[in-house]
Design a protein that fits this description.
The chain has a domain at about 25-70. The chain is about 25% helix and about 15% strand. It contains 2 helices and 2 strands; from the N terminus they run E-H-E-H. It has a two-stranded parallel ribbon with strand order 1-2.
Length: about 70
């Protein structure tokens, strides 16, 4: 089974969870890999009905950059 991760600021309420379900991300600004990539399409599939409710406010192609943004939010 493949494992995915979520980079989230340590002060965010979701940061204390052991795992994240798709519905947990609704109402949270989500930064993801570029839209239309296989990885983004897998995320949308995993998210199911919740994908349309998520706030995909930005995307990235370098994980380090995403980590720096998450750190500052």
């Amino acid at each position: 089974m493949e494992q995915w991760g979520v980079l989230i600021h340590d002060e965010h309420p979701l940061s204390s969870r052991d795992f994240i379900r798709p519905g947990d991300l609704v109402g949270t600004r989500v930064m993801t890999v570029h839209v239309g990539t296989p990885t983004h399409m897998q995320l949308a599939k995993w998210s199911g009905k919740h994908a349309k409710k998520m706030d995909f406010y930005a995307n990235y192609n370098v994980l380090y950059n995403a980590a720096m943004v998450a750190r500052e939010r």
